[in-house]
Specification:
two-stranded parallel sheet
């Protein structure tokens, strides 16, 4: 049976409605990310024994801020252009020490060349599926800080003060807020998350987006990209801001993140994904798909 055409699953009017951006919806999503950061710090300050939980939550929000940068690069988080530009640079990129404009150029090429050998993101998922030992070694490098050190060296190569200013300002504001709370020491939690957990979350994200896709060199999005239906805990820790609806995002990059769940349910309910192994029920399934059969 022939695969369903997109025009059969979604009307122009529905797509137009789902593509509408909203300043208040974008602010609500960003505010939720900040609220969880504050809650994570407050939890550890209240009782340092909860610090490991705080680190996990902070790592998830670091990915959330990275996704904020991503959505602002597409100008899809807010309706107002300057809000996307400001937030993408001074919050999203600043939080993880990533240059917003350079990231946007790189990422738009990923969308332009997805499903071809020219996709710059192929290097992130080449070789998948891999052996169990290979995947274990990759995550060990992440959880022991080796991946972070490698990224740090690349990030600070040829660095300029102007280029690092957003990162330095973000860190200064965070340290100042913790100082007002009488807990400057808690900044160590942010860096524990950034060094030892965030790289592993990023790896899992990359695997779930393209590493377990059916064929990364096929121009059909249902074959070169993958979506994961995350549960509430996965959304808290490894799949914030609806980033797990990656196939839907590749199909319609203009659709803001807060409309991706609706887009997914509409397409799934009308059978658009049938016949394609492009949706997984959770990240445990993603890990199993990422491992090569003996």
């Amino acid at each position: 049976m022939a695969a369903m055409a997109l025009s059969e699953a979604l009307s122009r009017e529905e797509l137009r409605d789902m593509s509408r951006t909203s300043n208040w919806r974008g602010a609500l999503m960003l505010g939720g990310d900040f609220a969880l950061v504050i809650a994570a710090f407050a939890l550890a300050i209240w009782n340092p024994w909860f610090s490991p939980v705080s680190v996990l939550i902070l790592a998830g929000r670091q990915l959330a801020f990275a996704i904020v940068m991503h959505d602002c690069a597409h100008r899809s988080l807010f309706r107002t252009k300057w809000l996307n530009e400001f937030t993408g640079k001074w919050i999203g990129g600043a939080s993880i020490d990533a240059p917003f404009l350079a990231y946007r150029d790189y990422h738009l090429n990923h969308h332009k060349y997805a499903g071809t050998p020219d996709d710059p993101d192929h290097v992130l998922v080449e070789g998948y599926p891999v052996t169990t030992d290979s995947l274990r070694r990759k995550f060990i490098r992440d959880f022991t800080g080796q991946t972070f050190v490698k990224e740090l060296a690349f990030s600070w190569k040829d660095a300029t003060f102007a280029g690092k200013l957003p990162f330095l300002v973000f860190q200064g504001v965070m340290i100042g807020a913790l100082a007002l709370a009488g807990a400057v020491w808690a900044i160590a939690l942010w860096w524990a998350a950034r060094i030892f957990v965030f790289p592993a979350i990023m790896r899992l994200r990359n695997i779930g987006e393209h590493g377990v896709a059916m064929d990364r060199y096929d121009p059909e999005p249902r074959r070169n990209t993958h979506t994961t239906k995350a549960n509430w805990l996965e959304r808290l820790l490894v799949a914030p801001n609806h980033v797990h609806y990656h196939l839907e995002h590749h199909m319609f990059a203009a659709v803001p993140p807060y409309h991706l769940p609706r887009l997914h349910s509409t397409l799934a309910g009308r059978g658009y994904f049938e016949g394609f192994d492009c949706v997984s029920p959770g990240y445990a399934t993603v890990i199993r798909k990422a491992v090569r059969a003996p």
